[in-house]
Structure prediction request, 257 residues.
Amino acid sequence: PLVHLPLPAGSAPGSVPVKFFGRNTSAAAAMPEINTQDLDEKQVQLLAEMCILIDQDDKRIGADTKKNCHLNENISKGLLHRAFSVFIFNTEGRLLLQQRSDAKITFPGCFTNTCCSHPLSNPTEVEEKDAVGVRRAAQRRLKEEFGIPVQQVPPEEMKYLTRIHYKAQSDGIWGEHEIDYIIFMQKDVTLSPDPNEIKSHCYVTKEELKDLLKKADNNQVKITPWFKLIADTFLFTWWDNLHNLKKFINHEKIYRM
Prediction:
């Protein structure tokens, strides 16, 4: 079910429009009947999780299911949610990549950065001061996907750099429309991946990632659209400055990709 935040005092229901890409549109999501019988049972269960609905300035306006947030029918009407992308580098400076499992509903089998997911609409993960809610969500998902012990990835050690806003279709039914918090961390961590989430994983150098990106351009492998956007723009500059990331922190700007 869609959950709206309380309206400002004196506002009548429906009197406060929500803006997406300069258009006035209702935040209410369509709930088309989607056949999930052929999808992975565990991944279907996750579709009931409540994501955080936002406007194009990343202001929280409500909550809706992961399912509704990822249906192209709703995305085409402007439905937008909060997300994050984590990049973990080991002490040798190699980036941890994952290949999404074939069970994933969006972008199955695609290579991507360490962890990509969504903060949930609960008191722990909606907290916005210093993006602590998003960083807590990142800690949770690193444990769920990669089996990384939570004490190895405390939120206070995660560097929140900036945000990107992008939209992409996975297929005719499912897609993404997110404002994505970019989180960096350099640390050696213990890995025990969940095969329902992760098909394979590897640490790569810059040159190895460039080779992977070339293979993706030649349709030899698949990579997620958000990872390609970040890799084509900011990633290698940030990677060159792992010990001096402070100058790249920008919590005011949202990069529209």
